[in-house]
Amino acid sequence: MPDGGFGSDHLPYGVFRPAGGGPRVGVRLGDAVIDLAGLSPDGAPGGVFEAPTLNPFLRCGRDVWDAVRDSVRAAAESGADTVALGEVELLCPLDPPDYVDFYSSIEHATNLGRMFRPDSEPLLPNWRHLPVGYHGRSASVVAGGTPVRRPLGQRPPGPDGRDPSYGPSARLDFELELGFVTGDGPALGTPMPISEWRERIFGVCLVNDWSARDLQRWEYQPLGPFLSKSFATSVGHWITPLEALEPHRVDAPPQDPEPFEYLRLDEPAAYDIELEVALAPAGGGEAVISRTNARGLYWTMAQQLAHASINGAAIRAGDLYASGTISGAQPGSYGSLIELTWGGRDPVAVDGGERTFLEDGDTVVLRGRAGTIELGEVAGTIQPAPSFP
Amino acid sequence: MPDGGFGSDHLPYGVFRPAGGGPRVGVRLGDAVIDLAGLSPDGAPGGVFEAPTLNPFLRCGRDVWDAVRDSVRAAAESGADTVALGEVELLCPLDPPDYVDFYSSIEHATNLGRMFRPDSEPLLPNWRHLPVGYHGRSASVVAGGTPVRRPLGQRPPGPDGRDPSYGPSARLDFELELGFVTGDGPALGTPMPISEWRERIFGVCLVNDWSARDLQRWEYQPLGPFLSKSFATSVGHWITPLEALEPHRVDAPPQDPEPFEYLRLDEPAAYDIELEVALAPAGGGEAVISRTNARGLYWTMAQQLAHASINGAAIRAGDLYASGTISGAQPGSYGSLIELTWGGRDPVAVDGGERTFLEDGDTVVLRGRAGTIELGEVAGTIQPAPSFP
C-alpha cells in the first residue's frame, strides 16, 4: 500500500507535540506529519492549529475544512515540510463535549440479546425502528496506546443465588466500533435534517468501547450501561476526513420496515471499510481473532446523527458518536469477545494459549482499511486493577 | 426569611453579565450580586472569575474554595459593593464536561417500576446494592428560565398493535432533582475514596431533568433513556456551596443490605432540604403540585460520586451529578407528573383546569429550602415542538 495507507489521498488529522514545543494540529503523510500551525493553510483562522485538540478546527465548519484539505493536499503533493512520526509525541485528538454510543449492528444486537435475555426475542421491538443509543463518558475517551486499567465494580449474583460480589471485572472485553466526529450542528431546540449529514460530520476513526461484561449484566437494568463502559474508550490518533472515504461510500443494507422520514436518505451512506481485531498476550505475538466490514451496519452514521438530533439536542464541534460493536454474520466476524467466545463458552486461540475474556497484559489492536486508506489503529494494553477496599 | 434566603450564611455562586460587560462569576447576596472579578478575594488565582462558567474556579479545588468563601463572607458582612440583580443578565453557571443522572429515590424507582414493568417486581435486584445511574447529555444543560421546546421523536406502538408513530411528545414531564457539582477528582484509573466526598463536591443546585415519557418507554430497552431526556436539563442559576448546608446535614435513611465498603460512610450525608414543585398554565396562576424533602433519598451524594468513580472514571471540575427524581412516600410528594397522575390516570388540579402531562405554555418551577437558605429556583416554560418532516 503506498505510504502505508497514509498517502496524499488520505491526509487524516491528529494532534502532536514536537520535541520541546506545545501541542498542535498535524496531518499525517506516510510516516511523517505536516505541522498545520507551520503550514498556515488557506482559509483557516489564526490559532486553530495551535491547540491541544481538534475542537477549534472542528468549530470552523465545512467550508474551512474543505479549503484546508485542498491546501494541505497541494502541499503534500508538492513536497511539504514534514516531521518524522518518531520525533513527535501523539496526543488524543478528541475532547468530546458529548459522546454517544449506538447499537447499530443487527448481528451484534441479536447476539447480545440472545445472551443477556435468553428467555425472550433477542431483537427488541424498537430496534428496527430507531438507532438505539446512549450517552457515554467523555472524560474516559483516550487515545490508542493509553493503557487500560481493569475496572473494579460490582459483579452479578451467581446462578446459585449468592450475593453480588465486589472486585476487579472478570469479564473484560473490547468492542470494535467505527466512530465519527462532528462540527457544530443546529442550536438546542432545532433538529438536524438528515440531508446535512456530510456537512456536519468531519471524519471517522476506530473506537474501542472497552466493556466489563459482569458489571454490565448487573447494572444495566433499567437505565443502561454505566460503569461497565465508562472506565475507558479508546480512539485512533488520526481522524480520517469523510472526503478521503468518498470512493468507498456504498449502499447500506436494506431496511425493513422503512424508517420514519427523518431517518430516510436517498444516497449511499455506508462505508466499505475492512476491519480486524488482533490480540497479543503479554510478551506474545498477535493473532487476528476477528475480521468484518463496516458496510454491513444496519443504521448509518447519517441516521445515527439525525436520530440523536431529532429531539432538538444540540450537536457541538468535537462530539463523538460511535457505531456500537460491528459484528458480521459469521462467528469469526464478531466484534467482541463475548460474542466470539459466546459468553465465555468457546475460547479463542491466541499466541501460546486461549482466551475467553481479556487478561492483564493483553494488547488489543483494532485496524481498518478502505482501499489505499488505512485508518489509524487503536491499541490498548490491559493493566491490573488498582487495589482499593 | 432574612434576605429572601440569600443572606450571608448562604452566598451561592453564579455567572452574570453586567450591562455592557463580559461574563463573570458572582455571589448572590439578597437581591444583589457581589462581582468576584471586582472583589478579587484572597486565595484565588487571577482570571478565574472573568469566565463564562464556574469551571475555572471549580478547578481550583477545596483550599481555594474555602479561602474565597471566607473572604466573600467577610466582604458580605462588612458591606461589599453589589450590583442589583435587576441590572445584570444571569447566565448558566455550568458547562459540565460530564453529566450523570442517578435514580436514588426508592419511592420513585418503585413507582416507575410499577408503571413501566407492571408484570414484574418493581424494584430490580440491583437497586439496593448500587446507585443506578446513566450519563446524560452535557450540551442540553441550560439555566432555569430557558424555554424548553417540546421534543419530537418516536412514540410507542399502541396496545392494539399499531405501529410506533412519529411526532411531538404527548407525555412531557418534569423531574424534581437535586444536583451537585464537583472539582477535579483523581485521574483516570484511580477510584475516589468515599471519605473524600466533601473535598470533591463543591455545591448543589436544583435540577429539572425534563422527560418525554412516551419516547422513553419506546426507546429505553436495553441501553437506557436517550432522546427522552437529552433535549433539556435545567439547573439553578445559583450553586449553593456545601458549607452553607452544614447545619442541615442529617443522617440518610438506613440501608438494607449494608452496601459494599466502597459505599460505606460513618457520618451524616443527607441534607434536610424541603422541596416543592409549582405548575402554572400560560397566563394562569401557579399551583404547588408536590412537596417533598431531599433527606429521604436512599443513596447519598457521597455514595453516588464514590460509585461513579469506583471503576476509575475520572471526575472533572464542573461535572454535574443529579439525584434522580425525588419522591416521597405519599402521592402529594411525588417528583414527576407520571407519578403524581399515576401514568396519566389521575389528573392533578392546576389553575383553571387539570393536567396529566405538560401542555405548551405551562411553566414548571422547582424550589428548595433548608432553614434560612433558599436554593436558586429552576423555572421552565414549554414551547411548542418545531415543525419538521
Question: How does this structure look, described?
Answer:
The structure is a homodimer of 389-residue chains. The first copy, chain A, has 8 helices and 27 strands. The first copy, chain A, is α+β, with helices and mostly antiparallel strands. Chain A has 2 domains: 13-91, SH3 type barrels (Roll), CATH 2.30.30; 99-383, Fumarylacetoacetate hydrolase, domain 2 (Alpha-Beta Complex). In chain A, strands 6, 7, 8, 13, 14, 16, 17 and 22 form an 8-stranded mixed beta sheet that branches. Chain A starts with 12 loop residues before the first strand and ends in a 6-residue tail after the last strand.
Number of beta strands of chain A: 27
CATH fold group of the largest domain in chain A: Fumarylacetoacetate hydrolase, domain 2
Q: Determine the N-to-C terminus distance of chain A.
A: 51 Å
Number of domains of chain A: 2
CATH class of the largest domain in chain A: Alpha Beta
Largest interface: A-B, 71 and 71 residues
Instruction: Catalogue the unreliable spans of chain A.
Output: none
CATH H-tier superfamily of the largest domain in chain A: Fumarylacetoacetase-like, C-terminal domain
Total helical elements of chain A: 8
Strand content of chain A: 25-35%
Largest beta-sheet characterization of chain A = 8 strands, mixed
Q: Supply Rg of chain A.
A: 21 Å
Briefly note the structural class of the backbone of chain A: alpha+beta
Helical content band of chain A: 10-25%
Quaternary structure? homodimer
